[in-house]
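tool=predict chain=A
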Amino acid sequence: MTETYEMTETYEVIVIGGGAAGLSAALVLGRSRRRTLVVDAGEPRNAPAAHMQGFLTRDGMPPAEFLAIGREEIERYGVELVRDRVVEVAEGFAVTLASGRVLRARRLVVATGLKDELPEVPGVAERFGKDVLHCPYCHGWEVRDQAFGVLATSPLSVHQALMVSQWSKDVTFFLHEVAEADLAADDLRRLAAAGVEVVPGEVAELVVTDDRLTAVRLKDGTAHAREVVFTAPRAVPRSGLLERLGAELAETPFGAYPVVDATGQTSVPGVWAAGNAVGFGEQVINAAAGGYRAGAAINGDLLMADLDTAAGV
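tool=predict ok
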């Protein structure tokens, strides 16, 4: 049976999601002496990666270590963290957790991120974060000058093939289920100018030998020796809570994301969003910055609301 909790726990801010964005917002709010709770389901998007790059002073740090340090930092300022999942947010920001616990908040930060759906090609999911990658800025330096493959997931994958040619001059673009006729003539010319070989035909599997990617095999049986494969997962925003709250969403080529202002405030009064909850391309350093902006904006919003109440404005 589900336990029943009395609705007695009230926070000034509840942060939904304990990744870089959520922890950064919580850090600012904790330092601002706001009673803050972080609810984290423990499913970070970058969990498959052995390291993260491009975060000044934290370049090369394992993601799990980064989050562990962040949790320690927010704890210093009295921020609470619970390992749970938010299943519903009702009127008045009554937040119900999967455990049955019910909480109230004056303001919300939604930092639930997104989920990556990988191509259903044998070997892709198993090697993701190792030698199957998606972001050259995250991993390009570490695999530079190796034999790259790019597994197309849509005609937009041309951009990925062109980008990774910055890190290797040996790039093969596997069209997979994309027809060559669907590629723009200008894109084909750019691929040729970058020295990218275009290979039509559906990919059957990735070949792994001694725990290393060694080739990409097509359905016709031909194999192309490759050491690294880049592919663009389908981004699935975790925007269910925002939808149910009535937040305005905008369609993008990477899914529907909330419309937010410069601080991350959504169209719903009292609700902010940050990190990959607001866009596909938010790297860890961007997510942390977005969380910081949201936290500072929320503190100011609460301060002005309380002063207006006291002043009878």
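The chain has two domains: 9-116+234-311, 119-231. The CA atoms of residues 107 and 302 lie 8 Å apart.
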